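Inputs:
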Amino acid sequence: MTERLRIVVTTHVEDRHLAAMAAVDPRIEVAYEADLIPPPRYASDHQLPPIAGDAERDRWVALLKSADVLYDFGPAALADRLPGWRRLRWVQTTSAGVGEFARRHGLLAREDVVITTASGVHARPLAEFVLMAVIMFGKDLLRVQADQRRHHWERYAGEEVAGLVAGVVGAGRIGSEVARLLRVLDAHVIGVVRAVDGRTPADVHADELVAVADLDAVLPRLDVLVLATPHTPDTAGLVDARRIGLLPPRAVVVNIARGDVVDEAALADALASGRLRGAALDVFQTEPLPPDSPFWDLPNVLVSPHSASTVAAENDRIVELFCENLRHYLAGEPLRNVLRPELLY
Amino acid sequence: MTERLRIVVTTHVEDRHLAAMAAVDPRIEVAYEADLIPPPRYASDHQLPPIAGDAERDRWVALLKSADVLYDFGPAALADRLPGWRRLRWVQTTSAGVGEFARRHGLLAREDVVITTASGVHARPLAEFVLMAVIMFGKDLLRVQADQRRHHWERYAGEEVAGLVAGVVGAGRIGSEVARLLRVLDAHVIGVVRAVDGRTPADVHADELVAVADLDAVLPRLDVLVLATPHTPDTAGLVDARRIGLLPPRAVVVNIARGDVVDEAALADALASGRLRGAALDVFQTEPLPPDSPFWDLPNVLVSPHSASTVAAENDRIVELFCENLRHYLAGEPLRNVLRPELLY
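Outputs:
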């Protein structure tokens, strides 16, 4: 199908990952200019590289223009120019929620460029975060930890996950894995999806499956609202002040989607006033979360620095997925995890 | 089998629980002197009642002597006298780990008195505590929470439960449930039991099953050591300084058994020096944990006030178990959850 396939890797990977890519096929050449790429701040960091000056910009432009395939987008500052480089055929991203970024930078207009996401790679660590948060609030753990800090011992009765009603908005691989784990602990899970499209609850490991159009009827029933939806224009502002008001006071909000899905000011108000029980938030409208955000100090809020999805083994998994896709690509077979432009995920 | 069966309830229950007991059979009479019993400090509190003075003591003695069946032991101050009251035939306890208490007060010497425990009732909430703790340490959550308190945002890579090696000491209903949940998240679970006795790992939801005599060989392999063993003379001091030294520095200790199972001073030293990664402790040698205990302030320790097993729905479950046992008792059938005096559980 192809004479040469030039892959430009724009994010930090280990030597073994480069070797794994190259080993897929002799037609593959892998470009990785390590000095352009910031060292990872933590294992499997996928910071888009900054550009220090004109010389670096020129090097990046030359590099990106030469790519048949990009492993991650490269510098955000050049993302608008990606659609103009005609050699580009495929971008493998290191994140799942990249639809909005790709749309904004015009990449979805290129019908001859396919984007594949890291969808699925983050499902388990995100589902573990949700499980942890749900058990923590069931055990009133933030209060227990405050007691620990003042050396105060007070026995109490918590509550089990069994019987809790959890609404999981978004039932892709992440939402389905969240649902599966919550149901192992006998929670009652309501999957909330854009459109049911003939799927059954069991298809997404839920007890019930409803369309997002029916969300308002679901909210008053919830002990836990999990936001695991992709960030698209449809989901921005989905959980607005009115919908927050529909949640019962016992409800906990867990956001592993994007900050824009929630009206943060309304959520902070509801949490501060006790109209909501608590929240575990991994994502925020502005990241890093500004130092004056009310979330930091709310005693019923867990602030996680957008790392719930990140595990040290992540790069291994994404590279494994990419190598599998490379084999498909060279064989002219359909790729896994293709971003659907009409859905943005 | 019996003309009348007089049940004396010595711990706080709700009216509906008393009604459920009485409804089992017309031969049953239920005594519950509410003014002798301290109000619960939290739902399903099972504090042994204190005795305020001689008048209360006399009332308790008369009450306990009149019992065919006790629902919980009654005042600790009178526990030594229980074996002398010949009418007593059966004690249903509200806890699982009561063997040592029963032995110390001479109750095991009465071959005509059966003790049934609440074994199994606490399995799920305890297993949820373990799961929560394991995910928390995987996500370095205590550090993340310290960052939250100083409004500091720092992304990082955690680790998944998948692939962690967890040793679960004690594979009764609690240990088995811990093992089952950890394996749902693809941990590798090594069950450690008094004697394997022909059981397979699958019998206790583990990947491997070894005798406690082989514990030393297991410890260096562990990412997580879960103590879920009953408190017996055999397990006191089981995790001593030498064995703590056999754990690798990445190991986390979760104690949901009894404080006496661990050498607390050695554990605190190992945690303070970083020779161990962390600990989640629900039980302590002295409870309430003294204000000057080093555990309170260690940044890698979660102190839980012996409440990991306690959920609001607990009394419903124990009473349900008791009512089932009442039916068996009146029908002359074997009871569930009989304490085996030779094992103390």
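Remarks. Chain B touches chain A through 54 residues (CB under 8 Å). Chain B is about 30% helix and 15% strand.
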